Amino acid sequence: MFNSKLAADFPEHELLQSLQVKLDAESTHRINSFVVDNCFVSQEEESFQNMDQHTQIQLMYKRRNLLGQYCKLIIYGVLPVIDASLVLRHYTKFYNDFGDILKHLLQKCKELDKVSAAKAAILALITSYEELRALSASQYVDPNSEEFGSLKDLARRFGLSFGPDNVKTGTQLL
Asked: What is the average pLDDT across 27-54?
């Protein structure tokens, strides 16, 4: 299975065209939903707390494996880089569980296309903010709340991952 870029790089090889993965919007949406619903589950849930330690470790291994495979789909171009925003928005909340995987995903996305990686990071921040605003009792989000602090930490981590030089990273983020 190949992504569309590899098939486009070798148009003279018609057999590569037949191996090209072409996902429709419905399939992409189902993959995205499956990963988000099965990887980013809070460990404070009662069903998780009732499991023995061995089962919890196995479940964490499966969740990490699923997220890693999803990230490979993005890195290898089967899914668009912008879909990384769906998992990057959970970077701070699940940092202990998946921080290494998500950091590697962001680095690889930057290597592929810095502008698309920046768009994915910004979309993750916007989506997280909109979700916070929807959960808020008023129209505005309390800047002193713990949730907003988590959002600021996410923005800080994204900013640091693009580097401290604003002149170099400015074009990516605009």
From this structure: 86
Helix (H, G, I), strand (E, B) or coil at 2: strand
Amino acid 34: pLDDT: 97
Give the span between the Cα atoms of 81 and 3, in whole angstroms.
13
Average pLDDT, stretch 139-161?
A: 89
Distance CA 159, CA 157 (A): 5
Contact between residue 86 and residue 125 where contact means Cβ atoms under 8 Å apart: no
Number of H helices, E strands in the chain: 10, 0
Q: State how far the Cα of 78 lies from the Cα of 76, in Å rounded to an integer.
A: 6
Q: For the whole prediction, is pTM greater than 0.70?
A: yes
Instruction: Match 């940092």 to its residue by tokens.
Output: 95
DSSP 60-123: HHHHHHHHHHHHHHHHTTSS-GGGGHHHHTTTTTTHHHHHHHHHHHHHHHHHH-HHHHHHHHHH
Q: CA–CA separation, 105 vs 52, rounded Å?
A: 31
Identify the DSSP state of 22: -
- Amino acid at site 102: L
Structural contact between residues 102 and 124, judged by C-beta atoms closer than 8 angstroms = no
Amino acid code (one letter) for 136: S
Tokens of 109: 């996305």
pLDDT of 6: 63
